[in-house]
Each structure stands twice: as C-alpha cells, then as structure tokens.
C-alpha cells in the first residue's frame, strides 16, 4: 500500500430538496434498436405547434394548440399521443399528469420535419406525475439565471429537463437531447420504474442559484427506485464549485434502490457515478448494478466511482460493477473511492478495466474484487490489495488517446473475464456484439471480434 500521497476525499453533493468502434456505438446509442414501444390501440392524437392556436381542438396539425400550458390542461387517455412540431421552441413546463396503461401508454413525441422541438426555460421543462408514459425525440435546455463571476463565470440556475415527481411510475424517456440544465433527468424519491434510454446529455453543468449550495451539474439524478439508465451518451457535466472546487456527475444515485446502469458512454464528466443517502428521507442508494459502460475523461480532475461504506451519506450496500472500461488521463484523475468502512457487502468489482493517470483508487477496508485490470502509467497508486485473478498492468487498448478502448490481440483482458450479468437486451457488449466472442468473455466493455 502506498503512503507517499494520501488520496483526497470526494465530497458529497446535496441535490435540491423537494419543493473506431465509436461511430458504431453512437449509432447504437442514439439511433439503434431498443425495446419497442408497446403497441397501443388507436387513440386520439393531439398537436402543439409554434403557429397553433390555443382555442383550437388540438386534433390534427391544422388545428394544433400553441402552448404547452394549453396542452397540460388537456385530458389524455390510454393510447393517446401528444405531438410537438419539429423546428419549434416552446416555453416549459409541460405538466404530464396523465395515466396510460402497460399496453396503452400515453406518448409525447415530435412530428414533422427538421430539428427536434425544444422545450426551454421553465423551472422544469417537463414535469411528470403520471404513469405509463413515453417521452421521446424532444430537446430540453435553459438559459442560466445568473453566472458566478468569481468561479469561472459558472452558470447558475435551478433548471431541470424532465422531473419525475413522487408517485409517478413506468415512465420511459428516450431519444432526446438535454443541454444547459442543472439536472437533465431527475427521478425523485417515491417515483419508480423510470427508464432513461438512448438519450444525449451535453453540458448539463448548471449549479444551484445559491453559489454556496454547490448542488447540480448532474445529467441523471436518481432518488427513486428500480430505474434503468442505458445506451445514453453523457458529456460535459463538470462545474466550478465554490464549496468543492470542481463538481458534477454523469449519474448520481441518492436513495434509489435497484438501479441498473448499462451500455452508456460518458465523456469528460467530473465523475461518472456517485452514490449516497437521500438527505430528505434517509433512504439509501443500494442494489446498484453497473455494467458495460465506457468512461473517458481528459479533465485534469475526474472520478469514476464514489461509493460509501458508512457515514452521513452511506452505506450503499450491494453496489456491483461488471465489465466497465475506464480511461482517465487527467493529471489529478482519481478513479475509485469506497469510504468509510468499505466491505465486500458494499462494493463488488469484476471484469473491469481501470486506467488512471494519477490514482487508481482508495478502499479503506475490504471489497469483493476479481478479474480486473488496474493501471497507472506514472506510479502504482493503488490503495488496496488486488486478487490473484486481477492484473496490475497495461490493458493494451487499441488507441486510448484517440478514444478507442477496444482491446488489442495481446491484451491481458482477452478471454479472461467471467460470465456477464443478466441485463435487459441480453449479453452484448458496447457495440451490440454477442458475449462471448471467444472461449470466455473479455474483460471490459468491448468484446474483441473473433
């Protein structure tokens, strides 16, 4: 164990209280096949257009409403659809209190040609309190309320993309674009079964309007239970923070139980994943499965995983990491932290590659670890012992500096992994290839084609 340089401790964020194969993967993430929307019986279709009229019926593009306020007051029933015209910009929020069914969800989506319709500048752009809903093919953004001139002109503003309120459930958010917000998707405590699929999050980096609060810059914030976060691309959640110096995350789970995070690409975020306790109701983030994600960052300071063994923001039991590929090239990168009181019941990591220029990680107790590859090119900065089945050495990516984390033929990760976990969509790698391709699965998120 190295003692020359103690690792810094990642600080928790308090979210607002309730009041080369890359091109292939991009296509898979944003355009590829996903579990189909359940077939619905023919319902009524309503339209909203920037050239519409709120006194119209909304039934048909020639009789479209003009505002989301009017659409929010409509009564939609199972099987109905609300369509927003492409090329238009609408002021939020759209309030979605409608109730579909599992076989006849209510769908909110785009129509026409051109760029995705934008919902902007509401406190929330879409506020969901209903159930069995599909929200797809839209764009969400906001302007900052103000900027913090004393902290790199950091944008501030309590602005959310899709806010899923307590009691909402079975909500699918897919194929949409989130930018310039405090939280992209916020699943509150009491909401459940929310699926965030094949979206793009770019520069979700606003912090709380009170610069001393420091909350925000989180693409996907999970406080509710049984969420799935899959096939998304998340980039640029990094902020100048007065309380913490730097802050932000692709994904935060504070209190959510049973979250599955798989097949995402995360680029240049301050952190990929942070887990903690919801400070409003005391619920723990637990039973989290993380698999087949690629995490890359060129930022000077970046983390991969922060999980708690105890303390005010823990414990976070049964956090399981499988088949991720991580490459953090910043001078102060720090991949893994599990404190205080980490145990094998808190954190399991298998079949994962961690490459960090500075610190691979710090585990202050024990954990369940095997069949991993850990590497720092500057010094062996591992503050934990590794299993005999793991490797402390170069994983031999194809071209990590160019963003290609596939494995070379002579990589120590080829045919060295264990059976993949059970995931929606079956056993496939980040390119959608069947696992395994060889005699055994490869370590990391990419299978080498055979």
Concise summary:
3% of the residues lie in helices and 37% in strands. With 450 residues, it is mostly beta strands. It has a domain at 142-407.
Assess the beta-strand content as a share of residues: 35-45%
Shape: globular
Rg computed from alpha carbons, rounded to a whole number of angstroms: 22 Å
- Considering DSSP H and I runs of 4 or more, what fraction of the residues is helical? under 10%
Helical segment count: 2
Query: How would you characterize the largest beta sheet?
Result: 12 strands, parallel
Q: In terms of structural class, how would the helical and strand content be classed?
A: mainly beta
The total strand number stands at 41
List keywords for this structure.
450 residues; mainly beta; twelve-stranded parallel beta sheet; disordered N terminus; 2 helices
Account of the protein in words:
The relative contact order is 0.10. The protein has 450 residues and is mainly beta. The N terminus is likely disordered. A hairpin with a 3-residue loop joins strand 21 and strand 22. The strands form 6 sheets. The chain has a 12-stranded parallel sheet with strand order 1-2-5-8-13-16-19-24-27-30-33-36, with no helix packed on it. A 12-stranded parallel sheet has the order 3-6-9-14-17-20-25-28-31-34-37-39. The chain is globular, with a radius of gyration of 22 Å. It contains 2 helices and 41 strands. It has a domain of 266 residues.
């Amino acid at each position: 164990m190295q003692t020359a340089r103690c690792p810094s401790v990642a600080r928790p964020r308090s979210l607002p209280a309730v009041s080369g194969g890359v091109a292939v993967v991009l296509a898979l993430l944003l355009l590829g096949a996903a579990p189909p929307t359940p077939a619905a019986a023919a319902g009524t279709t309503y339209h909203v257009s920037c050239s519409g009229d709120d006194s119209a019926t909304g039934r048909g593009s020639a009789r479209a409403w003009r505002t989301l306020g009017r659409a929010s007051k409509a009564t939609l029933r199972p099987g109905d659809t609300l369509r927003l015209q492409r090329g238009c910009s609408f002021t939020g929020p759209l309030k979605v209190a409608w109730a579909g069914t599992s076989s006849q969800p209510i769908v909110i989506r785009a129509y026409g040609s051109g760029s995705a319709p934008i919902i902007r500048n509401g406190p929330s752009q879409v506020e969901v309190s209903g159930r069995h809903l599909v929200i797809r093919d839209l764009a969400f953004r906001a302007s900052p309320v103000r900027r913090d001139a004393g902290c790199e002109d950091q944008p501030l503003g309590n602005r959310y993309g899709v806010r899923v309120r307590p009691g909402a459930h079975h909500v699918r958010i897919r194929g949409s674009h989130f930018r310039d917000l405090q939280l992209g998707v916020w699943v509150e405590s009491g909401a459940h079964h929310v699926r965030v699929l094949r979206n793009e999050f770019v520069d979700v980096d606003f912090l709380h309007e009170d610069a001393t609060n420091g909350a925000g810059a989180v693409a996907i914030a999970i406080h509710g239970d049984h969420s799935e976060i899959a096939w998304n691309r998340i980039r640029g959640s990094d902020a100048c923070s007065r309380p913490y110096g730097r802050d932000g995350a692709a994904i935060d789970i504070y209190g959510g139980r049973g979250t599955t995070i798989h097949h995402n690409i995360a680029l240049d975020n301050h952190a990929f994943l942070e887990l903690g306790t919801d400070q409003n109701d005391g619920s723990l983030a637990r039973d989290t499965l993380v698999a087949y994600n690629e995490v890359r960052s060129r930022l000077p300071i970046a983390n991969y995983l922060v999980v708690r063994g105890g303390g005010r923001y823990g414990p976070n039991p049964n956090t399981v990491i499988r088949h991720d590929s991580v490459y953090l090239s910043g001078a102060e990168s720090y991949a893994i932290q599990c404190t205080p009181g980490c145990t094998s019941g808190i954190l399991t990591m298998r079949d994962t590659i961690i490459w960090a220029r500075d610190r691979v990680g710090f585990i202050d107790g024990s954990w369940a670890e095997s069949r991993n590859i850990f590497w720092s090119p500057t010094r062996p900065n591992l503050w934990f012992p590794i299993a005999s089945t793991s490797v402390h050495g170069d994983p031999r990516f194809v071209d990590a500096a160019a963003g290609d984390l596939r494995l070379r033929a002579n990589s120590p990760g080829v045919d060295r992994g264990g059976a993949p976990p059970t995931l929606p969509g079956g056993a496939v790698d980040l390119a959608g290839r069947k696992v395994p391709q060889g005699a055994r699965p490869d370590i990391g998120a990419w299978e080498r084609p055979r």
